[in-house]
């Protein structure tokens, strides 16, 4: 993952698009390779977060202006009271629809659905455990003003994103071809959960963990 304080050289090795974008901004790689990514962008008159979004091809997540104005306590409350419960509820709902659909359409597409459902269950297990850890340990410590090591959570975020990438691939970008209402509903709910999860992880990695 790209970090503010890594050198431009390390950032380019991490993601080759960094070089292309820096050149577009008029930067000369040889002169800035050993500078920190953040300083190099500043000297090129570019906003760090905007640059990351461009390079990582992230869509603009909704309602971020409000989140960026929140304090650490407010962000943690927002995540614990709104984001975590909503995402778990959506995951549960998707699980339920899957079970019904596999049974109902077993002959026609039971196997296809099963492969996707397996990934969904891995996501569900990961989220239940990850959210519990955040709520019981890291976030509690952060609220108590302790210094918190976020390494573990960062690794789990990467794993979660990997699982969503897989889900996205298997469902062809959440466009499983179907007339059945349950499958259409699954497309919609999984697409929403994917977007929500990427936004949630962005808020934690890029805002909360850096406070
Ligand atoms: Fe979280
Ligand atoms: Fe998290």
TrEMBL record:
The keyword Membrane does not apply. Keywords: Cytoplasm, Iron, Metal-binding. The keyword Protease does not apply. GO terms for cellular component: cytoplasm. Residues 108-211 form the Hemerythrin-like domain. One of its GO terms (molecular function) is metal ion binding. It comes from the Bacteria. It is found in: Cytoplasm. Gene3D superfamilies: nmb1532 protein domain like (1.20.120.520). This is Hemerythrin HHE cation binding domain protein. It comes from Peptoniphilus harei ACS-146-V-Sch2b. The lineage of its organism: Bacteria, Bacillati, Bacillota, Tissierellia, Tissierellales.
């Amino acid at each position: 993952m790209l970090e503010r304080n890594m050198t431009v050289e390390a950032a380019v090795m991490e993601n080759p698009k960094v070089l292309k974008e820096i050149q577009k901004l008029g930067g000369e790689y040889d002169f800035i390779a050993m500078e920190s990514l953040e300083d190099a962008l500043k000297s090129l008159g570019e906003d760090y977060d905007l640059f990351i979004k461009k390079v990582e091809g992230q869509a603009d997540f909704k309602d971020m202006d409000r989140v960026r104005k929140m304090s650490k306590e407010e962000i943690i409350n927002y995540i614990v009271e709104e984001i975590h419960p909503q995402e778990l509820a959506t995951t549960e709902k998707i699980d339920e629809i899957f079970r019904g659909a596999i049974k109902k359409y077993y002959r026609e597409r039971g196997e296809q659905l099963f492969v996707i459902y397996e990934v969904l269950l891995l996501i569900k297990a990961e989220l239940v455990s990850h959210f519990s850890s955040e709520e019981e340990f890291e976030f509690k410590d952060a609220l108590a003003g302790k210094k918190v090591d976020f390494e573990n959570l960062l690794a789990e975020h990467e794993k979660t994103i990997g699982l969503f990438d897989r889900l996205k691939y298997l469902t062809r970008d959440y466009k499983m071809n179907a007339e059945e209402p349950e499958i259409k509903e699954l497309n919609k709910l999984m697409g929403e959960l994917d977007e929500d999860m990427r936004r949630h992880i962005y808020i934690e990695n890029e805002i909360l963990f850096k406070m």
